[in-house]
Write a structure and sequence with these properties.
Distance between the termini: 63 Å
Shape: elongated
Low-confidence stretches: none
Oligomer: single chain
Order of helices and strands: HEEEEEEEHEE
Number of helices: 2
Structural class: alpha+beta
Number of strands: 9
Length: 155
Amino acid sequence: MTGRMGYTMVLAVALAWLAGCQTTRAPRAEVRSVAVTEQTAEGARIEVVVQVHNPNDVALPVRSAAYDVTVDQAGTFTFTDQPPVTLPPRGEQTITLPAAFVRSDEPLVGRPVRVAGRLRYQPPGEIRQLMTDYWIPLPSLSFDRQATLDTFVDE
């Protein structure tokens, strides 16, 4: 191996080996609720509440959230966001993801709903930052839930 291809291969192997030295464990995510928070003649707002647990000793910033909310007979809302959230060390963080549906003559409460998404987070370290700079994707965690739409209950 000579030239640029050889250099690229060596760099890729070194980065993969160094990334394996990280002890960051994947966080866990669970959809806690999916509820209609507002419905008018113009449309409806739904909020998805996701609880994320970080088992690591370091904080993990969430860099993006990409998700779909599909309501039976109302369609699918697809969105990508950059929530200003950091998962605390050995702690939990609640993330609220909004969805909007245009005009519905029938109430959405009680309809089947499916939520599926992915959160990308930034592990610590200079090696991971270098990998990010070279467009190696951040690690992610998925969430998925099928349920029946509830009404919003303010606790």
